[in-house]
């Protein structure tokens, strides 16, 4: 008695990529027989028709599709690869009286050498990114130092020009401002007394 319901099956193929990397692919399909073609299916393939039809078709199509991609592209373009395999298999199995309801790439396994190469590439990319960050940070520090030096030079130039224009008056103003600042800092302290005089002396009075 034929089972006409949708059934799953996992198909496996070992094949090569465009850049000659070996890859082991596991494919999961959902399929069912076309009811109107059951007599033909039974006559040509018997009760285990799926065992006779699906592995050979999937092997043929996977080899053809995978050969068109590089190893990294199989990962990067996984959805596109899966869609292409589904399109080709759907057309092929229909010739044998089957309907392909769904297909997915459940596993893609590469050889050890390729995985080592991928890991080394990732490490190299991380090192390059770290070096780029260090260089950028160094450049930013250099730029900040240049800007700071230019600012200090400009400030010194402006002060020099102001002194030349205003003479001793500007220096006296700076001294007064400094004295006011010091006084504001010491005023809250009870053990400090201000004595008037030409020297503006401050004496500490111990209790």
* N-to-C order of helices and strands: EEHHHHEHHEE
Residue share in helix: 55-70%
How many strands in all?
5
CATH class of the largest domain: Alpha Beta
Tell me about the biggest sheet? 3 strands, antiparallel
Q: Tell me the count of domains.
A: 2
Report the average pLDDT across residues.
Answer: 81
**What is the CATH T-level topology of the largest domain?**
Tetrahydropterin Synthase, Chain A
Our count of helices gives 6
**Uncertain stretches:** 200-205
Strand order of the largest sheet: 1-2-3
Structural class by SSE content: alpha+beta
- The percent range for strand residues is 15-25%
| Apparent shape | rod-shaped
CATH architectural arrangement of the largest domain: 2-Layer Sandwich
Radius of gyration: 42 Å
Instruction: Please name the fourth-level CATH homologous superfamily of the largest domain.
Output: Band 7 domain
Distance between the termini: 114 Å
